[in-house]
Amino acid sequence: xxxxxxxxxxxxxxxxxxxxxxxxxxxxxxxxxxxxxxxxxxxxxxxxxxxxxxxxxxxxxxxxxxxxxxxxxxxxxxxxxxxxxxxxxxxxxxxxxxxxxxxxxxxxxxxxxxxxxxxxxxxxxxxxxxxxxxxxxxxx
Length: 140
Hints:
This protein is mostly helical. It has one domain. The protein has helices spanning 2-25, 27-49, 53-139.
């Protein structure tokens, strides 16, 4: 489970870096503009053959405004996603720390039990050896 969480955190980190690089370099805005230009070219071709010119122009303007709004809101959304990722990372670290503490505690209990049982075994064998020595002395 811990490995899966690490993989998810790593992937989210990589995605965040990629998105940040695209935003900072302006690549993402350029991609949005290119998409809008391609769509406008398609619509312009349809307008030439269309009778409802006013409707098509209104649709193009509406789409253009929507795309511009998305391009403006994108950095805000990235901040929201980044803060969410950071909060999830903190939560996962807390959970991981608790799990590690429990595992270490469980291992500590097992090792203390095994060491105490080993001590009792050595005491028993030492007692048997002393009994044998005293009994062999009595026979002589």
